[in-house]
Amino acid sequence: MLLRTAITTLVCLLSLTSIVFVARLYGRDNGNSNNSLATWVPSFSTQDVQPCLDNPDWLLSLDLTYPINYARRDIIVNPTSDAKRLSVTKLPGSLFPRFQTIDLTDTTKVQLKDCKDPLFLDVPESPKGPVNASHVIFGISTTLSRLDDSIPSLLRWLPGTHAKLFVIAIKNDDVPEDSKNRYHSADTKAMSKLQSRMRALDMDVTIVHPLSKHDWFSQRYFSLVRVMYEHRQSSTQWISLIDDDTFFLSIPSLLKMLARFDPQQQFYVGALSEDWWSVSRYGMMGFGGAGVFLSITLAGIINSKYDECQERSHTSAGDIRLRECISWYTRTKLTNIIDLHQIDIHNDLSGIYESGRLPLSLHHWKGGGPDNKGYPLHMMHLVADICGDCFLQRWQFGNDMLLTNGFSVATYPGAGVKALDLDMMEETWDHPSVVPESVNTNGVDHSLGPTRPKLELGKDKIQYRLLHSALVNGTVRQSYFKAGVDGDHDTVLDLVWMHPPEPTSGLPQR
After folding, report:
1. Exposed/middle/buried for 88, CB within 10 Å: 0-12, 13-18, 19+?
2. Bridge partners, 425 (sequence order)
3. Count of Cβ atoms closer than 10 Å to residue 3 Cβ
4. Are 295 and 261 in contact (CB under 8 A)?
């Protein structure tokens, strides 16, 4: 208790680095008025806390218009075996102090009138020791430029796992090079340079040319099976076909899932699309962006029938070509893992991210969203460095505010959170295409259900969305932005996630 009191006092006095929650209003029609703040911001008394000095100079890089409404809080996590990741964890009181209007035009030194004590959160313990995924080989078929662009996201899950990644790369997208239908080869020197750069980042990556210059996309994707199988080792148990925008949120959780299956048997592990129309059209197959995993035994069979499958299949989709080959030469059926996500639904995916569920994989995150700019998963996921599987975990504060770690803070005017069934996923996305006469009326019951209707932003739900996040001296600072409406200021919420300091090392410094 004394240590906790000391930490609290020192954090407040030293004004530690803040996590910035900046919530941006994605269009004026959301109607996120600051008048709603009164429903969840506590009353302020100058006797509650002593004024504290902050230096939020990182806000200058976020292209804000000053003055802004501002609040901040520090969070110290306590990993413990007793903590469980629930659908939502309820806590009394408020997360943030009352907002204050600040202007960084002339100075970044801010005298805060309200400085709340750090919040201590119990979180589940992360697995101890290094991750060993050396028995898994991943494969991607893409262009050299897209692979380069994917490095920030790959850095979040691949380094230090001992897993190998093989990449079949071409120069650009599928534009035939000549009348013989050959495709532009990537420059060998450029491939070697990118490979060296990725290996220097602790990623065991090998970049290769297509097996045939005449292979088009689905053939190159399917040929990953041969490339990975021929580079297997005695310890290899699984090969995995993924896209360059497949994102694994937790390799330990992924390995735990695979450990349920015997790689000496024939296993075809993946996920159906969330969109029932896509499933009804393309079949019961593992959709490639979610990640497809083949036991080494099944991969060997496919490799032995490689030429026949390439010749026999005429589909333009690689994951369909793979499913066809499996169905032609084996009796193996898909083992559907609902926590692997293809994400074949569109527009606002808040319902998925705010569901409280922890996916094994996410896909199609580079595009979409209310502003069509996608979701910065490589930044959103940084908080996992502090608290492991607490990414996208939900905490409820008081009666009407939810924190979805790494994605949003949302408040619910009127009836508050108690009016919602938080075990049901909010249907924030565009309604998928209808399958005639199907009982799957909303098109996602088989994958994302149970669901609840979409709330009206600015009326039933006020959402503050992550804009930026960064690692700073052993802490994670997050940044979210909400634009003001009808003359109101933009709003910035500031939080810093940190480990409890070692007793002998003192507190982390700015």
Report:
1. middle
2. 451
3. 10
4. yes
CB 353 within 8 A of CB 375: yes
* Total residue length of the chain: 510
Burial of 189 (0-12, 13-18, 19+ CB in 10 A): exposed
Q: In terms of Cα–Cα distance, which of 164, 160, 332 is closest to 263? A: 332
Give pTM, 2 decimals.
Answer: 0.86
- Give the pLDDT score at 217: 87
Query: For residue 426, what are the β-bridge partners?
Result: 452
In the three-class reduction of DSSP (H, G, I as helix; E, B as strand; rest coil), residue 166 is classed as strand
CA pair distance 99, 36, nearest whole angstrom = 12
Of residues 408, 388, 407, the one with CA closest to residue 461 = 408
Instruction: Report the amino acid identity of residue 117.
Output: D
CA atoms of 408 and 116, how far apart (whole Å): 20
Q: Residues 275, 168, 268, 237: what is their CA dihedral angle, to the nearest 10 degrees?
A: -140
Q: Which 8-state DSSP code applies to residue 457? A: B
pLDDT of residue 174: 56
At a CB cut-off of 8 Å and minimum separation 6, what does 498 contact? 16, 74, 75, 76, 77, 386, 474, 475, 476, 508
Q: Which residue has the tokens 């898994």?
A: 136
* DSSP code for 247: E
Distance CA 247, CA 254 (A): 11
- Say how far apart CA 366 and CA 153 lie, in whole Å: 10
Distance CA 315, CA 431 (A): 27
Of 479, 505, 504, 498, nearest to 490 by C-alpha is 479
Phi-psi region of 71 (alpha: psi -120 to 50; beta: other; left: phi over 0): beta
CA–CA dist 293, 498 (Å, integer): 35
Q: Do 480 and 408 touch, CB atoms closer than 8 A? A: yes
Tens-digit pLDDT profile for residues 159-201 = 999 999 999 999 876 565 554 556 788 999 999 999 999 999 9
3-state secondary structure at position 464:
strand
| 334 burial type by CB count under 10 A (0-12 exposed, 13-18 middle, 19+ buried) | buried
Residues contacting residue 500 through CB under 8 Å, at least 6 positions apart: 7, 76, 77, 78
CA atoms within 13 A on the CB side of 346: 5
Pairing type for strands 394-397 and 89-91 reads parallel
Q: Where are the beta strands (DSSP E) in 20-118?
A: 20-22, 52-54, 68-80, 89-91, 100-102, 110-112
